[in-house]
Amino acid sequence: MSVNKQVLYNGKKELPFNVGTFIFTDGSVRTDATKVKGFRGGCGCVLFHNGKEMDSVSLPNDDTTISRMEMTAMLQALIMVEKYNINHVVIASDSQLVIKGINEWMDGWKRKGWTNASKNEVENKDLWMLIDDKLQKLNSNILFVWMNGHQDHAGNDRADELANEAVELTK
Question: 99: which residues sit within 8 A by CB, 6+ positions away?
Fold first, then answer.
């Protein structure tokens, strides 16, 4: 695995390699007065190559959280990288939790047995471990980028649309 740990904020730094492939991810949740626990949620993930949409994924979940949906969207992005054998890719998310988790915190959590600085088990450990496992198996140069959501960026807007469509599929 080759994971570039540089974090870009709204494209203000130059990319460290020439890339034409971008994946945008997003999660969404809705409250549901009929449920005592959990939220209706969905995630969206969209692959662009040279400015053209090539593939997308939209997954619903009946009982979830926004963090889990954002992480599931990232996992779907990594599955796309594997599926298409992408060598250089920028994966963008509007979730600082997911981007910082991958770029800054995950290695430390692993060293400490998936516990955080408070010595508690990392929240959503199951998904973090799946993301880590997928990263370990990939042989791709991946740059994980945080971007502001809802700022009229076509890629982020499309991922948001897919996530919201998935929520509407839940009961």
Answer: 7, 93, 144, 145, 146
Which whole number is the average pLDDT over 122-135? 96
pLDDT at 163 over 50: yes
Task: Note the helical H segments in the chain.
Answer: 66-83, 96-100, 106-111, 125-137, 154-168
Question: In this structure, are residues 22 and 38 in contact, taking their beta carbons and an 8 Å threshold?
Answer: no
What is the residue whose two structure tokens read 């998310």? 93
Q: In the prediction, which pLDDT does 8 show?
A: 44
Amino acid letter, residue 107: D
Query: Which one-letter DSSP state was computed for residue 9?
Result: B
- Strands 52-64 and 88-93, sheet pairing: unpaired
Q: What is the DSSP letter of 101?
A: I
**15, 72, 112, 153 from 76: Cα distances, Å:** 23, 6, 26, 20
> CA–CA separation, 164 vs 64, rounded Å?
14
Phi and psi at residue 131, to the nearest 5°:
-60, -45
Distance between first and last Cα of the chain: 39
CA distance 118 to 90: 32
- 28-38 per-position pLDDT tens digit: 998 765 555 67
Cα–Cα distance for residue pair 135/101, rounded to 1 Å: 13
